[in-house]
Amino acid sequence: MNNKEGYFGNFGGRFVPEALRPPLMELEQAMDTIMQSPAYRDALQDLLVNYAGRETPLTFCPHLSEKLGFRLWLKREDLLHTGAHKINNALGQALLARMMGKTRLIAETGAGQHGVATATAAARLKMDCTVFMGAEDVERQSMNVMRMKLLGAEVVPVDSGSRTLKDAINAALRYWISHQADTLYCFGTAAGPHPFPTLVRQLQSVIGREARAQMLERAGRLPDVVVACVGGGSNAIGMLYPFVEDEDVRLVGVEAGGTGEPGCYNSAPINLGSPGVLHGHVTMLLQDEDGQIQPSHSISAGLDYPGVGPEHSHLAEIGRVHYGVVCDASALNAFQALTRGEGIIPALESSHAVAWVLDHAEELPKGGDVLVNLSGRGDKDLGIVKKYLNI
Ligand SMILES: *Cc1c(COP(=O)(O)O)cnc(C)c1O
Predict the structure, then answer these.
(1) What single DSSP character describes residue 295?
(2) CA–CA separation, 358 vs 206, rounded Å?
(3) Which of 295, 336, 309, 216 is nearest to 255 (CA)?
(4) Which is it for strands 369-374 and 321-326: parallel, antiparallel or unpaired?
(5) Class of the domain covering 55-83+205-389
(6) In the prediction, which pLDDT does 1 show?
(7) What residues are in contact with ligand 1 under a 6 Å CB criterion?
(8) Burial class (CB within 10 angstroms; exposed 0-12, middle 13-18, buried 19+) of 97
(9) Annotation marks residue 61 as catalytic
(10) How far apart are CA 361 and CA 155, in angstroms?
C-alpha cells in the first residue's frame, strides 16, 4: 500500500533533519534483511508466545450480544503481558535492535504505557533503555515512572513546550541524532517518519491475522464490522489491516472526542483536524490556522495525541475505513457496561471502541458479527474512573 518513500496516498513520508536520515535508512534496511530472516522470525515468535502470551483469545460476549441483537466478539489484547497490545511492537523492535547490534533502546511515552512496554522488552533482551517523558506526564503518571525505573530504564523528563508526549517525541528524535551508532529509537505507535508506520503495522498486524482466523474458525464467517480505537493508530492498524482486502467487512476506527462540548479539546484529528507535518510525516493534525499544534485531550491518556498515523489518514481519505468519534462520557458508560455485563474491565482507550458499538447498535446488522479490539486492560485507569464515577 505504500511506495518506497513511505507514502500512503497523500500522507506519510520522511520529513526529518538530514542527520536523522542514516538511522532511518539503516532501520529500513534491517526490515528488509534481518526481519525477513528465520532467526528473527523464530525468536520473535518464541517471545510472543512464551513471554507475552500470544495468541490472545477471541471472547464472545453472550450478555451484551443478547441486548444488542448481534454477536459481539472481543480480541483480548488486554490479556497480554504488561496489559496491552504495545508489547507486540516493543518486543519486535527490541529484538530487531539487538540483531542490528544495538545496545540501547530509546522511547517516548505519554501515559507511560509504551515506556513500560519498551523497558520490559529491554530488560528481557538485556539492553539499556532510556525513556523520554514530558515533565507534566512524569508528575501525572508516577506508577508507570516507578515501573520503568524498577525495570532498569532511565526516565528523562522533558521540560520543553507543553511538557507532554509531543515534546517527548521531539526530544527522543534529537537524542537519536547524536547516538545513532549504538541506539535504536523504539517508536510507540504507527506514526512518525518512514519506516516507523510500516514497521509498527507489520509488528501489530498479528492482532488482525489471529482475529481473522479465529472468526473463521469460531463463527464460520468473517465479521460484518471490525472496530478499534485510534490514538496514534497502532492497535487499530494492526487489527484492521488484515481485513482491508475483505471488501464486505466494514472497518471502523474510533477517535476520542473529549468532553463532547462544542469547541472542546479532543483527540480526533481525522474528524476535526487538517493535513500538516508533525513528527516527521504528513498526516491529519489538530492545528490552528498558523500550523501551531493544538493541545489535545481525552479521558484516556493513551488516545491523547494531536496527530494520527499516516495510513489512517489515507484510509479515511479513500473511504475504506470510517472514523467515528466517541466522547468521554460514552467511553465511561461502555467501561461500565463491559465490566458489569461480561466481567472484563477494559482500558479507557478500548472503551471508546466498545462505546462506538453501543452508540451505533441500531445501525449494525441484526444477527451479524461485530468484532472489537480490546487493546488493553483497565486496571491502570481506576484512579480516573473513581474521580468521574464517585465510587
Ligand atoms: C497506547 C494505547 C492505545 C493507543 O495507541 P494506538 O497506537 O492508537 O493503539 C490504545 N489502547 C491502549 C490500551 C493503549 O495502551
Answers:
(1) P
(2) 26
(3) 309
(4) unpaired
(5) alpha beta
(6) 45
(7) 84, 86, 113, 189, 229-236, 302-303, 347, 349-350, 375-376
(8) buried
(9) yes
(10) 43
Three-state SS at 181: coil
Selection from 344, 351, 391, 342 nearest residue 373 by Cα = 351
Confidence of residue 140 (pLDDT cuts 50, 70, 90): confident
The beta-strand segments (E) located in 135-268 are: 154-158, 183-185, 225-229, 250-256
Angstrom distances, CA of residue 107 to CA of 28, 115, 185: 18, 6, 6
Out of 85, 114, 279, 312, pick the active-site residue: 85
As given in the structure block, the three cell numbers for residue 240 are 484492521
For residue 4, the model assigns a pLDDT of: 61
Residues 6+ apart with CB under 8 A from 73: 58, 59, 60, 61, 215, 218, 219, 223, 369, 370, 371, 372
3 state SS of 149: helix
pLDDT digits (tens, 9 = 90+) for 186-240: 999 999 999 999 999 999 999 999 999 999 999 999 999 999 999 999 999 999 9
Of 170, 150, 85, the residue nearest 346 (C-alpha): 85
Q: Is 281 designated active site?
A: no
Give the distance (Å) from ligand 1 centre to CA of residue 210.
18
Q: Which three cell numbers stand for residue 375?
A: 487493546
Q: How many A from CA of 304 to the centre of ligand 1?
A: 10
Q: Strands (DSSP E) along 212-249, which ranges?
A: 225-229
- pTM of the full predicted structure? 0.97
Could you state, in order of their start, the residue ranges of all structural domains in the chain? 8-48+86-200, 55-83+205-389
CATH ID of 8-48+86-200, from 3.40.50.1100, 3.40.50.720, 3.40.50.2300, 3.30.300.210: 3.40.50.1100
Q: Whose CA is nearest to atom 13 of ligand 1?
A: 376
Closest C-alpha to 300, from 264, 340, 339, 353: 353
Tell me the average pLDDT across 274-301.
Answer: 94
Q: At what angle do helices 86-99 and 196-204 cross, to 10 degrees?
A: 120
